[in-house]
Each structure stands twice: as structure tokens, then as C-alpha cells.
Amino acid sequence: MSQIALITGAGRTTGLGLEVCHQLAAKGFSVIVTARNGDDAQRNTDLLLQKHPESTLYPLKLDVTEANDIDQAASWVKERLGRLDVLVNNAAVFGTSTEEVASADLAQSQQILEVNFYGAWRMCQAFLPLLRQSPSGRIVNVTSGSGSFGDMKYGLNSGVRINTSYSISKTALNALTVRLAKEERRRGFGVLINAVCPGWVATRPGDAERGARPVEEGAAGIVWAATLPKDGPTGQLFRDGNPLPW
Length: 246
Ligand SMILES: NC(=O)c1ccc[n+]([C@@H]2O[C@H](COP(=O)([O-])OP(=O)(O)OC[C@H]3O[C@@H](n4cnc5c(N)ncnc54)[C@H](OP(=O)(O)O)[C@@H]3O)[C@@H](O)[C@H]2O)c1
Known about the structure:
CATH superfamily: NAD(P)-binding Rossmann-like Domain
Bound molecules: NADP nicotinamide-adenine-dinucleotide phosphate
Strand order of the largest sheet: 3-2-1-4-5-6-7-8
Strand content: 5-15%
CATH topology: Rossmann fold
Structural class: alpha/beta
Number of domains: 1
CATH architecture: 3-Layer(aba) Sandwich
Number of helices: 6
CATH class: Alpha Beta
Largest sheet: 8 strands, mixed
């Protein structure tokens, strides 16, 4: 049976999620294509099938803020497939670029953390039992250098002003990555859990013209972490397969 990957937030046609699905399908993975809107999941699965007619693909409606969706998805994977090999926590919302700590609308900020941080946390909790059934369980938390203290290009100390709550949600996601990786190691499980920043990627109109990189390049670093060998790293932050400081 081929390896099985689940990607959250794969509902946009120009997003990283769909491209990660493409690249994993090209490597022979069966892919569970999830989106908060079931029609988007189905449309992107149809697009993937055109490119990879030999692949096994499963569209699934999954809103990472909906505990019911996550529970149903985990039950479905358990009953139908018995295990999961790769979980990519890709879903995110960005908020507004003008948001400042001193005046931020905290209700909006909480919604951002609900998706970007608690959404990924919920997914990890629900799917860890299935990932532990795999001989090569991997979690990739798609993060951003904007949540890093040490990334001097986009990070908290870089002087570049990237959306406040979004950046803080990614700092929290990075912390979760370290804690969970250490927990899994301590308990003797082989699941490798890393955070990956894809760099600035052209997933929106006009991004490429302003200097963002092609989506294929950003996705490749995520796929790299999703397909690490058994003795690969865990509890680290990467961009393009290279370590980034937290
Ligand atoms: N693009 C960049 O330059 C860049 C840089 C650094 C990090 N990243 C990270 O890369 C990942 C993908 O970014 P992207 O640029 O591809 O963004 P994107 O195209 O907006 O994709 C994000 C996806 O998340 C989905 N989503 C939002 N809320 C959700 C929820 N509650 N449940 C499930 N899915 C939900 C969105 O769904 P809808 O389609 O329904 O809105 C969207 O499809 C994100 O984690 C982002 O933080 C991106």
C-alpha cells in the first residue's frame, strides 16, 4: 500500500496546499486533499487527477477550527486506511498588515490563532495515534520566518513588519513543534515533527511581480520535510531543507 498524506488548507488553486498535494502524488503518495469547503476539495482533487490519473486521491471537507470535522476525518482515515504517514498542517489565515499590538482587535486575533495555532494543535492530537501506526510518520507544520526570533530576513527582530497576529501565531506553532517533537521522542515514538517556512511564495495575484518565489519552490521544502528518512531531524525549523534559527 502506498504512503498516505493528509494536507490541510488545500482548497485554493494557487495555494501551497495544492502544490504540496501535486508533489506528493508525483512521489507515489495517496493524498487526502482537505479544504474547509468540500467543493474546493473536490475541485482540486479533480485537478490533481488530471495530472496524476494513476494516483489515489481522497477529497475531504475539513475545517481545522471544527472539532467535529477533525474527529470525523480521523475516524474515516482510521476505518478506511488504518494509518497516516504524513500530516501537513498548511491551513492558515493572514489577518491584516496594518495590525499593531497596541491597538489590535483581539477577537480577530483569536480567530487567527484558532486556525493557525489551535487548528494545527487539534490536527496533531487527532492524527498522532494514526501517525504512530506508520513506520515513517511525519508532521510538517507550515510556519513563517515572520514568527522566528532568529530569522534576520523576515523574523521578529528583522525590522520587516509582517502581520502581527499571524506572526505571533507562527511563533506559537514553532513552540508547539519543539514541544511535541521532544514528547514523541521521549515516549519512544518514531514520528518526526518539524516546522517549515516556505519563504515568500507567489500564491496571490501580484506577488510574483513583487519578488515572491514560485509556489513549486516553496512547496518543495515542505515535501522535503514530509519525506525525511527515518534518521532525519525532528523538532527543528527549516527553509529549503536548511536549518533556520528559532
Ligand atoms: N505565501 C507565502 O508567502 C507564505 C510565506 C510563509 C508561510 N506561508 C504559509 O504557507 C501556508 C500556505 O500559505 P498560502 O500562501 O498557500 O496561503 P493560502 O493560499 O491562503 O492557503 C491557505 C489555505 O488555508 C485555508 N484555511 C483557512 N482557514 C481554514 C480553516 N479554518 N480550515 C481549513 N483550511 C483553512 C484557506 O482556505 P480558503 O481557501 O477557504 O480560504 C486556504 O486554502 C500557510 O500556513 C502560510 O502561513 C506562506
